[in-house]
Amino acid sequence: MIMPLPSLLIAGTHSGCGKTTVTLGIMSALRQRGLTVQPFKCGPDFIDPSLHLAVTGRVSRNLDIRMCGPDWVRQCFARHADGAAVSVIEGVMGLFDGGSGSAAELAALLGVPVLLVLDVRSMAESAAAVLRGFECLDPRVRLAGVIFNQVGSARHLQLVSEAVRRHCRAEIIGSLPRESGISLPSRHLGLHMGAEADINRQQLVSLIEQHLDLDRLIQLAGEAQVPAAPPAAPLEPVVGTVRLGVARDEAFCFYYQDNLDLLTAAGAELVFFSPLHDKALPERLDGLYIGGGYPELHAAQLAANQPMREQVLAFSRAGRPVYAECGGFMYLCEALADSEGGRHDMAGVFPVTARMGQRLRRLGYRTAELRGDCLLGPAGSVLHGHEFHWSDIDPMPEQVRRVYALDDGRAEGYLLNRTLAGYVHLHWGGSPEAARWFVREMGAGS
């Protein structure tokens, strides 16, 4: 059975070819026409979904086969694409990069047509050879259209277009000039988050409407052949309701919305607070969830908010459930040392200093098997996530338990009192019982 879900996936030949700019432009132009646009992101990224939200007004969902499995991905896509005029999926890296987590695998799984962003700077007729290779590599992937980026002149466009029409099947949907005047600000972890990025939506819309055949793009989206998703097993709520404090501000902004939805479905009332701006934790909390983000950019302000740091420490020492990831873990350390030698006091739950480096420390998917019962499940449970950070910590004392056995051989997931923290960002789509277990643990302490 095929579901009527107009959709397309925007992929690139490689990272940096312009697919995020093209994606944001297409989303903005479709919304400008009055269409409801549902955004999605292939892979584990937190930043691109925040940009999607900024231009569409709708929460973007991560579709990650490696972390969540094919059934969850199909269910998530069907659930959130339903009712939208067009769903737009942004790919990750190059179309075929990432193995089972690639944009190509996702397009094949969901039956959506692909638009390829092809950077033609420094090439002409050879662009056809590149495109032809992408067309032929995997017959399961329908590469329906191509968008040329970084076109230098009318003559350049003519040479590229004639070669592509002669040798390739993909339709030419449009071309973007080299001097478009559009740039997206970036820093060490990638582009700026949507809430802080200065996105000129009207400029994006003008660029797309002038240079792309948006009508044909909409027609191609309507040709998606999305197979019906398998039914999802309901997540039974835990008896009773718990109040979970979720840190959310400029410093802590990396959350998978599906994790928050799973916690709500399991019976948690989410209460948002700011370690940067609030002087006290919300009242009557049963647990804390401190996600990742950019504590290193706000270290001085976090350190200056001593009342909040002391309350978080007291909450942990009282044996209340606390779960933290990456930037949240850094906040729970004794201090954060910046790359210029400055030292900033943090909450002090873990007796180590987190130290910012000058380069990426770890990047990649992680599978964690629980070696003992903890906030997220019983011993033997398997969780899935991703690691991406520039900092590292001093050696953790041996008396602090490690409950994650990571698939790269490391022991991580530090457990002290009932506080569980580490660098891995977990997505619970592949292990939804983790959310229910966390809610049960919070209820057990109330």
List keywords for this structure.
446 residues; alpha/beta; Rossmann fold; 2 domains; 10-stranded mixed sheet; 7-stranded parallel sheet; 14 helices; 27 strands; 29% strand
Task: Give an overview in words.
- It is a single chain.
- The protein has 446 residues and is of the alpha/beta class.
- Helix 6 (126-137) links the parallel strand 6 (114-119) and strand 7.
- The strands form 6 sheets. The protein has a 10-stranded mixed sheet. The chain has a 7-stranded parallel sheet with strand order 4-3-5-2-6-7-8, with helices on both faces.
- It folds into 2 domains: 2-227, P-loop containing nucleotide triphosphate hydrolases (Rossmann fold), CATH 3.40.50; 242-444, Rossmann fold (3-Layer(aba) Sandwich), CATH 3.40.50.880.
- The chain is built from 14 helices and 27 strands.
Number of helices: 14
Structural class: alpha/beta
CATH class of the largest domain: Alpha Beta
Biggest beta sheet attributes: 10 strands, mixed
| Poorly predicted sequence stretches spanning 5 or more consecutive residues | none
Using the coordinates shown, work out and report the CATH topology of the largest domain: Rossmann fold
CATH architecture of the largest domain: 3-Layer(aba) Sandwich
Radius of gyration: 23 Å
Shape: globular
Short description:
The protein has about 450 residues and is of the alpha/beta class. The strands form 6 sheets. Strands 14-12-15-17-26-25-24-21-22-27 form a 10-stranded mixed beta sheet. A 7-stranded parallel beta sheet has the order 4-3-5-2-6-7-8, sandwiched between helices. The mean pLDDT is about 95.
